[in-house]
């Protein structure tokens, strides 16, 4: 596990982003700076770890598999896509629309232990599972040095 310096302003920024998701359109941020893209919505994720891999589960309800793109570049995993809104039908009135539609982007900086070439994705029932295998770490060898 990598140690990360605590930054109280980053925590404040993350809390602000969470509040924005609840009360308005969220703005995407990268490393504390505004990104040029503003997402229409941000899917929620769970990230877990076992001895052999990291697992990212992203909820993408009503998103078609062909509307999802996953890339890994320079140690950053990016998940992007679009959830399309129903076309208006004649004679059909909406009384309330609370779900978000449109494009989304999520990016995650990967730990150095992830084998980028082995990332696998599976999509079922509106959940995208991203399997990020850990690379075999080279264990340091103990070398005995004879004192002359």
Automatic annotation (TrEMBL):
This is Heat shock protein, Hsp20 family. The keyword Manganese does not apply. Residues 36-148 form the SHSP domain. SUPFAM superfamilies: HSP20-like chaperones (SSF49764). PANTHER family: HEAT-SHOCK PROTEIN 20 FAMILY MEMBER. Belongs to the small heat shock protein (HSP20) family. It holds the Pfam family HSP20. Keywords: Stress response. It comes from Nitrospira moscoviensis.
